[in-house]
Design goal:
It contains three helices and no strands. The chain is an all-alpha fold.
Length: about 100
Protein backbone atom coordinates (compact mmCIF):
# COMPACT_ATOMS: atom_id res chain seq x y z
CA UNK A 1 0.00 0.00 0.00
CA UNK A 2 2.92 2.36 0.61
CA UNK A 3 4.20 1.86 -2.93
CA UNK A 4 0.77 2.46 -4.45
CA UNK A 5 0.28 5.60 -2.33
CA UNK A 6 3.73 6.84 -3.34
CA UNK A 7 2.91 6.31 -7.02
CA UNK A 8 -0.35 8.21 -6.60
CA UNK A 9 1.56 11.12 -5.08
CA UNK A 10 4.04 10.99 -7.97
CA UNK A 11 1.10 11.36 -10.36
CA UNK A 12 -0.23 14.19 -8.21
CA UNK A 13 3.14 15.99 -8.26
CA UNK A 14 3.33 15.59 -12.03
CA UNK A 15 -0.22 16.90 -12.38
CA UNK A 16 0.66 19.87 -10.16
CA UNK A 17 3.69 20.64 -12.30
CA UNK A 18 1.62 20.49 -15.49
CA UNK A 19 -1.08 22.66 -13.93
CA UNK A 20 1.39 25.33 -12.83
CA UNK A 21 3.09 25.33 -16.24
CA UNK A 22 -0.27 25.61 -17.97
CA UNK A 23 -1.66 28.40 -15.79
CA UNK A 24 1.48 30.30 -14.73
CA UNK A 25 3.90 29.38 -17.53
CA UNK A 26 4.43 33.00 -18.55
CA UNK A 27 5.53 34.16 -15.09
CA UNK A 28 9.28 34.71 -15.12
CA UNK A 29 9.90 34.79 -11.38
CA UNK A 30 11.06 31.42 -10.05
CA UNK A 31 9.95 32.34 -6.53
CA UNK A 32 6.38 32.95 -7.68
CA UNK A 33 6.40 29.73 -9.72
CA UNK A 34 7.57 27.78 -6.65
CA UNK A 35 4.91 29.44 -4.47
CA UNK A 36 2.17 28.62 -6.98
CA UNK A 37 3.47 25.04 -7.28
CA UNK A 38 3.45 24.48 -3.51
CA UNK A 39 -0.02 26.04 -3.21
CA UNK A 40 -1.38 23.94 -6.11
CA UNK A 41 -0.02 20.74 -4.58
CA UNK A 42 -1.55 21.60 -1.23
CA UNK A 43 -4.93 22.18 -2.85
CA UNK A 44 -4.67 19.01 -4.97
CA UNK A 45 -3.70 16.83 -2.00
CA UNK A 46 -6.22 18.32 0.43
CA UNK A 47 -9.22 16.05 -0.44
CA UNK A 48 -7.16 12.91 0.20
CA UNK A 49 -5.80 14.29 3.45
CA UNK A 50 -9.28 15.22 4.65
CA UNK A 51 -10.69 11.80 3.71
CA UNK A 52 -7.82 10.02 5.46
CA UNK A 53 -8.33 12.16 8.57
CA UNK A 54 -12.08 11.54 8.61
CA UNK A 55 -11.68 7.78 8.18
CA UNK A 56 -9.08 7.61 10.92
CA UNK A 57 -11.22 9.75 13.25
CA UNK A 58 -14.29 7.61 12.68
CA UNK A 59 -12.25 4.47 13.23
CA UNK A 60 -14.22 2.61 10.58
CA UNK A 61 -11.48 0.27 9.52
CA UNK A 62 -11.57 -3.18 8.09
CA UNK A 63 -7.80 -3.09 7.75
CA UNK A 64 -5.29 -1.35 9.97
CA UNK A 65 -5.38 2.44 10.36
CA UNK A 66 -2.25 2.99 8.29
CA UNK A 67 -3.53 0.92 5.39
CA UNK A 68 -6.88 2.73 5.51
CA UNK A 69 -5.12 6.10 5.46
CA UNK A 70 -2.91 5.12 2.52
CA UNK A 71 -5.89 3.70 0.63
CA UNK A 72 -7.89 6.90 1.20
CA UNK A 73 -5.02 9.01 -0.08
CA UNK A 74 -4.63 6.79 -3.14
CA UNK A 75 -8.35 6.76 -3.90
CA UNK A 76 -8.41 10.56 -3.89
CA UNK A 77 -5.05 11.29 -5.53
CA UNK A 78 -5.46 9.22 -8.67
CA UNK A 79 -8.79 10.70 -9.86
CA UNK A 80 -7.62 14.24 -9.10
CA UNK A 81 -4.37 13.70 -11.02
CA UNK A 82 -6.25 12.19 -13.96
CA UNK A 83 -8.68 15.11 -13.95
CA UNK A 84 -5.82 17.62 -14.07
CA UNK A 85 -4.16 15.63 -16.86
CA UNK A 86 -7.41 15.70 -18.82
CA UNK A 87 -8.06 19.40 -18.24
CA UNK A 88 -4.49 20.39 -19.18
CA UNK A 89 -4.27 18.25 -22.29
CA UNK A 90 -2.64 19.71 -25.42
CA UNK A 91 -0.18 21.70 -23.33
CA UNK A 92 2.52 21.28 -25.98
CA UNK A 93 0.23 22.32 -28.82
CA UNK A 94 0.71 26.02 -28.10
CA UNK A 95 4.30 25.91 -26.87
CA UNK A 96 6.52 28.59 -28.30
CA UNK A 97 10.12 27.88 -29.20
CA UNK A 98 12.84 29.91 -27.58
CA UNK A 99 14.66 31.74 -30.40
CA UNK A 100 17.73 32.71 -28.40
Amino acid sequence: FCVIARLSFAWLFLAGNILVERVFGTVSSKVLIFFFYAFALLILALPGIILAFVLSALEITVLSGTVTTLAALTVCNIPIALLVFFLCRNILQYAELNNR
